[in-house]
Amino acid sequence: MGDNIMAYNGGSVIAMAGKNCVAIASDLRYGIQNHTVGFDFPKVQRVNEHTFVGLPGLLTDTQTFHEKLNYRMKMYSLRENREMKPQVVAHMCESLLYERRFGPYFVEPVIAGLENGTTPYLCAMDLIGATLKTQDFVLAGTSSQAMFGLAETLWKPDLDADHLFEVISQVMLNAVDRDALAGWGCRVWVMTPEKVTVRDLKARQD
Amino acid sequence: MAVEFDGGVVMGADSRTTTGSYIANRVSDKITELTDKIWICRSGSAADTQAISDYLKYYLAMHSVELNEEPLVRTAAALGQQMCYSNKNAVQAGLIVAGWDRAKGGQVYNIPLGGTLVRQPFSIGGSGSTYIYGYCDAHYKPGMSKEECLTFVHNSLALAMARDGSSGGVIRTVVITKDGIERNMVPGNRLPIFYEGP
User: Fold this and answer.
1) How much is the ipTM here?
2) Is B178 helix (H, G, I), strand (E, B) or coil?
3) What proportions of chain A, in percent to the nearest 5, are helix, strand and coil?
4) Phi, psi (5° rounding) for residue A140?
5) Residue B169 φ/ψ, nearest 5 degrees
6) Cβ of B22 under 8 Å from any chain A Cβ?
7) Considering CB atoms only, which of A7, A34, A38 is closest to B164?
8) pLDDT tens digit string along A148-186?
């Protein structure tokens, strides 16, 4: 697994907020160190009507953590007879991660959603559950440094859904193009109060 | 990689240099000139291979003045082997020396990590090469023309670049014949495309 377990598989996720909308993007590479094994492994799942969870990091933990999260969310909706709000999803992730404080899941969650169906909610976490809430963008993964530079430059407040899509796409594409362990395609989800669109970006396949 | 044909050689390489997982240079030139008609494909540590190439260029220039003739490809390859073998514990260099000379025409010599020297009709090296051994063995035929060699090189490199994280960017080629050199570059959006997932 080498010196950096978070870079064993590679991969990156970024989420951004706009005016009454959120967008989240993930690369599609499944690799084992520098060997690319698959081209269709998104790190983001839509966990309920109004929330996305992205889990870049060690991909076995990405899969397992998604399964744990899905289980807990389904149990919640059976007991409470209502959907889990994005903030509650985030708090649940925090709790699930801290439970494993001394033997953690090697994932860095990125959570994006619409509170009450309208207000953008963004949250990022480290692998042991320390949360960061912000109004602009959150990101994690092997391309994080490149993504930070591009996001700080290109993001503006109150972008509408189409402009938000353009901005998040450019950040993702250009950041992963400088990262040997991420890329091979990108998928972008945009959520507005009316609908969710998902698009695959035409990206370098190297 | 490098491929021999009747009348010369075709050399090709990708253009990605990484430090860890960061792509430090996405348009590097990994095919370096040693003499007019002898060039070298470099893989492994960039610093080591650049230092070795500089030495080789110097030695071959001196040698050619002393001989009053163009040096042989085999000479360049043997010098490369000496440097890699004698310093095998210190350097990480995979070299392919290829070119044209009057004695044997087009030749390709592979010098992998320990300092072996072997002449081959075609040679592949670098981290991406592991992914294309099967493809190359299946598609190489002796007696290919220059154009067929170029297609073979472009397809092989494109496949390796798609699968290897440490390879990518553009495909640079150098064709060496008795008449001179042809350099070419195929950018990322014009690479041959193969299977890319469902």
Assistant:
1) 0.79
2) coil
3) 30, 30, 35
4) -160, 160
5) 95, -125
6) yes
7) A34
8) 999 999 999 999 999 999 999 999 999 999 999 999 999
Express each pLDDT in A50-63 by its tens digit: 999 999 999 999 99
Contacts of A185 in chain B (CB under 8 A): 196-197
- What is d(CA A72, CA A89) in angstroms, rounded to the nearest whole number? 10
Bridge partners of A12, per DSSP, are A141
Distance CA B61, CA B69 (A): 10
| B64–chain A Cβ distance below 8 A for any pair | no
Contact A84, A92 (CB under 8 A): yes
Q: How far apart are CA B79 and CA B82, in angstroms?
A: 5
pLDDT digits (tens, 9 = 90+) for A86-105: 999 999 999 999 999 999 99
Nearest chain A residue to B24 by CA distance is: A178
Chain B positions in Cβ-Cβ contact with residue A206 (cut-off 8 Å):
14, 16, 161-162, 167-169, 188, 191
Q: Hey, which residues does A51 pair with through a beta bridge?
A: A48, A113
Phi, psi dihedrals of residue B131, rounded to the nearest 5° = -80, -10
Torsion angles phi and psi, residue A191, rounded to 5: -115, 125
Q: Per DSSP, what are the bridge partners of residue A21?
A: A18
In a mutational test of the B interface, the residue from A29, A178, A202, A206 whose CB has the highest number of chain B CBs within 10 Å is: A206
